[in-house]
Amino acid sequence: MANVQPAVISAGFCEHASKRSDVNMAELVNEAVEDCLNKAGSVEWKDIDYVINGNMPAFEGANMPELWMTDHMAAKNKPLLRVTTGGTTGGSVFVSGYYAVASGLYDMVLAVAFEQQSCGNTTVGLASVALGELSIYPSLGYEATRLRRNMGAGAAIGVASYQAMNYMRRSKATEEDLARVVVQNRRNAAKNWWTHLKMPTITIEDVLDTPYISYPLRFGMVCPASDGACAVLFTTEEKAKQIADVPVYINGVGSYANEPAIIGVDCGGAGQTDPCEQLGAVKSAELAYSQAGISFPNKEIDYAEVYSPFPNQELQWVERVGLFEPNSAPEAYLNGVTALNGEMPVNCSGGVNSTNAIGASAMERPAESALQIMGKAGNQVPKTVHTALGHGWGGAINLISHVVMADEPQRKFK
Amino acid sequence: MTLNIDEEQDVSVTKGMIRAEFNFWVGIVMDKFYDGLQEKKFIGTKCSKCGKVFLPPRNRCGDCFAKAEDFIDLPETGILKNFTVTTYKISERKTRNVKKDQIVGLVQIDGADSAMVVPVININPEDLKIGMKLKVVWAKNIKGDPNDIAGFEPIGGV
Fold it and tell me: What pLDDT is attached to residue A134?
């Protein structure tokens, strides 16, 4: 349990696009840091006493980007930490910001996550993540050439299509259900200033009219590759009350790994057989809820941001983290429960499905949730949000970050 | 890719080649820097608060976290702040050893507060002195990239 109650007082973004060719990586990050500090009231860059930075390992071919962009994120002559855990990087950076304040060591912590996918060579970078266990294959007697054949559809969509197959079999969800999730996300993104794929008039038919990439996922269902950055400012409860109009308290954090899943199948008995079970998400959510004193997440959570590059994942996550009964999510989406004005709005920022600057994506989830509680989100829900969650997914296959935030501090501190 | 298992040593060796091409956006201020090289000119940036001058340019001052987006023309002369001498070719792995020792120096252009790592040419290593004045030698073919700077040589010879 935390020694100090950590709070979020500000979250900033830069504009996301497929090619931010006008700026280099450091300048891209600088835009988000500037936006974050501009929204942080009386906080100046000198007040920051710890900086955490993260993006995907070697995606841009820049191995120590944090040293390049030190000046650009107000980190000169300050303690600096780099965190990188694949797709969950942003979530892990956020969680590290929480740890830094919760430990009582630092008062004002800036966490920065970014990705400039138009730089470098994403496929090579992804090889280090999707094939993270490459080095153990030879020890198991697998030839490198055979590895490629066995993986079939490679990288993230390969994993997601297996998840989609299992989810659709379990829940009887149709392709139309998947397309509905995409439509909700992209229409939401059109109302949020920093997002990438803004499609205010997209329809289910439009999505279903695109070709398959990897069955059952179609081109129109896949997230884009974006350039972008996100910055979040953490501080203690006392300082947050002085600085912010609505301090957002981080009351529960869970981060579980349950991998390998698909790679495990290939590696012979190392993993699981059901990639849509997602025990890591279930466990992370349970831990975070228990810390936050939440017994009925489906009633107590007002808003959710989940990490879903692919639409089937959004349906899967909202069930695994306890917002909906198993296999009931497609119906909830059909009935508008998850829409902007619904009972349980999900991913009103547009989600990862509309904007995916990978290293930043898992931080943008809790960041957007925090803004919803503050009432400052780009696509603000009409109802008052008291409690919200931000979820991240990544790693080679499954490392989850789960953050629960509220406008009231943890019960223990009341 | 090939995989060989050496029975005697009980070690497996995987040999293969992965081709990785990386490209980068140079960004707001370095773009201007390369434009300057095309005109045989050094363009730096100046901090809007403390007045520090950066060459190569950057758009933020680390000491003030203030914008440094005002461009400033800088001269072709500078001071040698540091150097090393190497018998290896710096950019080409194939040729490796070079006939003549190569000098790499940290050169601070007059009026700038930061320095650039550049080749130092037309001088014998034993004549090098930290603090000596140098002048840029431009490449024959100017293309707007870092190779436009052929190197820096001592002013007036040694």
Answer: 55
B84 occurs within a structural domain:
yes
Per-residue pLDDT, B95: 60
Kindly determine whether residue B18 and residue A124, on different chains, have CB atoms separated by under 8 Å: yes
Q: Which residues pair with A253 in a beta bridge?
A: A403
The ipTM (two decimal places) reads: 0.84
CATH at residue A272: 3.40.47.10
Q: Tell me: the pLDDT tens digits for A2-44?
A: 579 999 999 999 999 999 999 999 999 999 999 999 999 999 9
Name the packing angle between helices A155-171 and A122-130 (round to 10°): 60
Residue A380 has pLDDT above 60, yes or no: yes
Determine, yes or no, domain membership for A159: no
- Which range marks the domain in which residue B56 is found? 27-154
Do residue A71 and residue B23 have CB atoms under 8 angstroms apart?
Answer: no
Closest by Cβ to A138, choosing from B14, B24, B59: B14
Least confident of A35-49, B22-36, B109-123: B22-36
Instruction: Give residues with Cβ within 8 angstroms of A191, minimum separation 6.
Output: A200, A378, A379
Measure in Å the smallest separation between the Cα of A217 and chain B Cα atoms.
Answer: 28
Give the amino acid at A16. H
Residue keyed to tokens 């935030």? A405
Q: Is A155 or A364 the better-scoring residue by pLDDT?
A: A364
User: Is residue A174 domain-resident?
Assistant: no
Whole-number Å distance between alpha carbons of A308 and A356: 10
Residue to mutate among B1, B22, B64, with most A CBs inside 10 A, is B22
A40-78 as b/e: b if 16+ CB within 10 A: beebebebbebbbbbbbbbbbbbeebbeebbbbbbbbeb
How many domains are there within chain A? 1
> Can you list the alpha helix ranges (DSSP code H) found in chain B?
27-38
Which residues does A contribute to its contact with B (CB < 8 Å)? 20-27, 30, 45-46, 60-62, 70-72, 74, 76, 116, 118-121, 124, 127, 138-139, 143-145
Tokens of A249: 């308290």
Residue A405 or A133, more confident: A405
Q: For residue B78, is it within any domain? A: yes
For B115-133, write each residue's pLDDT tens digit: 999 999 999 999 999 999 9
Instruction: Give domain status of residue B136, yes or no.
Output: yes
Taking an 8 Å cut-off on Cβ atoms, the answer to whether B20 and A121 are in contact is: yes
Report pLDDT for B84: 94
Q: Do A120 and B23 touch (CB under 8 A)?
A: yes
pLDDT in tens, A250-309: 999 999 987 654 454 444 444 567 778 888 899 999 999 999 999 999 999 999 999 999
Domain that holds residue A115: 6-122+223-413
| Cβ pair A219, A210 in contact under 8 A | yes
For residues A354 and A187, the answer to whether their CB atoms sit within 8 Å is: no
Average pLDDT, chain A: 88
Note whether residue A383 is domain-resident: yes
- Residue A172 domain-assigned (yes or no): no
Neighbours of A378 (CB within 10 A): 18
Determine contact: B12 vs chain A, CB below 8 A. yes
| Burial class of residue A327, CB neighbours in 10 A (0-12, 13-18, 19+) | middle
How many domains does chain B divide into? 1
